[in-house]
């Protein structure tokens, strides 16, 4: 069942009946005969040593409808890559690891860099971008999901519900975003989404009016979720940030490329938790400080492409408007938490808002001081125009790494 949330901007699929997993997976097995499915897992080597990824792989070992699993492995030397091959070997599906720090992919990256086509910085966006290139070159999946590797409450029903709208051959959705309540251990989580993105979008609407783009982003119940699925053709033409602005960047690109009738969101979990980033108020290069700054920059860059003019006075007004809006939202969340028997530390919530207000202003300064900045990774369509054989070379490099010749 579905309804339209926020004035019908995107279709919203609820988890109304808690349909049994076996029924969902039976449908997906049928869909896979007409629309093969794949999964991208962007991972750090350090995540192989934690309980979350072990649980995820154990769950995925029981998923029969996937044609391929693509694992992007960052921050791994040769011995660690070999350990990763052993770690993922228990997956029964065809799976390939992209050793992003290995000599073969580094060589390809150097060629791309020579033409200013390489991702500007390491990070999740760069990892996802290379995995997307391999997915295109492999051609084994027509519907592809992506989710993080630090989900401590992972259940394979998340994947089934995430893929369903884009895998069903009777549906016409190109992109699906996952959402869920951010509640764990009796408290509200998701500070960046609740206290930074939502009030920032609403502050921007107060200043610039109800822009379609801002209404669109505000219609997502959890725009920062790392879980989404799409048709394979989407991967070829999107340009994404290489930093923490990845999720906002992806939502912006599918909004640019597709009618909102082709976009949806789905409730994928009753219980969701993952590794939490520290606030890091003393270090702008890490934690939620950096994350919130990157997200704000991604929003400013998109608004600029829509013809919105921004200057220093604009960002001062935005900071003040955001701050007042966020404080009101803290009050609302406090009441909601009290009604549901949850804990909310209002002092730490206001500390987070103060930091986010600072990052909103600092992101604006960076935006104004870097007019020549190239924040987005080029699309794979552009890469193929510059290097017609790049995808073939990438495919061969990944196959060689996974065949044992390292």
Describe this structure in words.
It comes from Kushneria pakistanensis. Keywords: Transferase. This is Glycosyl transferase. A 9-stranded mixed sheet has the order 1-2-11-7-10-6-3-4-5, sandwiched between helices. Strands 8-9 form a two-stranded antiparallel ribbon. It is globular, with a radius of gyration of 21 Å. 50% of the residues lie in helices and 14% in strands. It has helices at 21-32, 51-60, 78-88, 103-114, 124-138, 156-167, 191-208, 212-218, 246-257, 287-305, 312-339, 346-369, 380-386, 390-403; strands at 2-5, 10-13, 37-44, 66-74, 95-99, 143-146, 175-180, 183-184, 187-188, 228-231, 263-269. Strand 1 (2-5) and strand 2 form a beta hairpin. The protein starts with a strand and ends with a helix. It has 406 residues and is of the alpha/beta class. Helix 7 runs antiparallel to helix 8, helix 7 (191-208) runs parallel beside helix 10 (287-305) and helix 10 (287-305) crosses helix 12. The model is unreliable at 1-7 (pLDDT under 50). The chain has 14 helices and 11 strands.
